[in-house]
Please model this.
Amino acid sequence: MSREISSERIEEAVAAALRVRENAYAPYSRFHVGAAIIDGDGGIHVGCNVENASYGLTNCAERAAVAAATSGGRRDIAVCVVVTQTSPPAAPCGACRQVLSECNPEMRILTTNPAREDTWYSLADLLPSAFGPASF
Ligand code: THU
Model:
């Protein structure tokens, strides 16, 4: 669990991710994903996956949530909640790990599913030796 973010706020973010997951546009994979980012002040920014008939244009839920947070003026992600339908819940793909890392390499990630099989990760667990702005 994040140091600064309350458990109540985390529960609100899980609820928001479950809700936004209902908006996923995933007619090809039928794999619906919802993400909710909590910024440093507890603000919640959501995203769902959006697929396309040209499959490679698909956008993941986590990156949609990063775009929403950025559009709202927030890059200071404390927690990213990701809800999938699988057991165990899926962890973010490599592309999303890299995009999340650019915001805050110290963030915590909570993967869960509607049955609430929660797993917490640090980004360093998921993306060790990350390439970032300090790498060049
Ligand atoms: N997907 C996400 O939204 N986030 C991930 O981290 C992994 C994959 C989506 C993309 C696609 O719409 C579906 O899940 C199946 O790959």
About this structure: The domain at 7-127 is CATH 3.40.140.10 (Cytidine Deaminase; domain 2). The first strand starts at residue 34 and ends at 39.
